[in-house]
């Protein structure tokens, strides 16, 4: 029983740490690449806005699918989508509207 509890605590810590890091890192990327504080604020607002909306409206989905499935699935989707951001940036294909869509999806699934 203790082992399962420790596993749950570690998984939660990793998930929360990743979410907090993306909340800081993605707007920082926008600020570094564009130098525009307005675009940085828009990016942070989109990410946090979708995150809050998902938390408020996601209860019925969690009730239907289950807490474990939605937690694992959401983290996997958010991680994969967030992993696309540096790949598109390196390839030179990361436009600001594309970034906003990706960040919005990450916010929905975190």
N-to-C SSE string, H for helix and E for strand:
HHHHH
Strand content: under 5%
Cα radius of gyration in angstroms: 15 Å
- The CA-CA distance between the termini, in Å, is 27 Å
- Low-pLDDT runs: none
Please give the domain count: 1
Structural class category = mainly alpha
- Number of helices in the DSSP assignment: 5
Compute the average pLDDT: 90
Query: What share of the residues lie within helices?
Result: over 70%
Largest pleated sheet: none
Number of strands: 0
Global morphology = elongated
Polypeptide structure, described:
There is one protein chain. The chain is mainly α. It has one domain. It is 91% helix and 0% strand. The chain has helices spanning 2-34, 37-57, 59-65, 67-91, 96-109. Helix 3 (59-65) packs across helix 4 (67-91). The two termini are 27 Å apart.
What's the SSE blueprint?
Layout: H1 2-34, H2 37-57, H3 59-65, H4 67-91, H5 96-109
Helix pairs in contact: 1-2, 2-5, 3-4, 4-5
Notable features of this structure?
110 residues, mainly alpha, 0% strand
Summarize the structure.
The chain is mainly α and 110 residues long. Helix content is 91%, strand content 0%.
């Amino acid at each position: 029983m203790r082992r399962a509890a420790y596993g749950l605590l570690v998984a939660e810590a990793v998930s929360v740490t990743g979410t907090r890091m993306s909340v800081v890192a993605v707007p920082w990327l926008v600020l570094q690449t564009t130098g525009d504080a307005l675009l940085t604020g828009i990016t942070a607002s989109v990410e946090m806005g979708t995150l809050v909306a998902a938390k408020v409206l996601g209860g019925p989905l969690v009730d239907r699918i289950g807490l474990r499935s939605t937690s694992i699935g959401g983290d996997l989707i958010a991680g994969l989508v967030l992993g696309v951001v540096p790949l598109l940036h390196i390839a030179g294909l990361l436009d600001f509207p594309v970034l906003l869509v990706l960040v919005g999806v990450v916010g929905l699934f975190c």
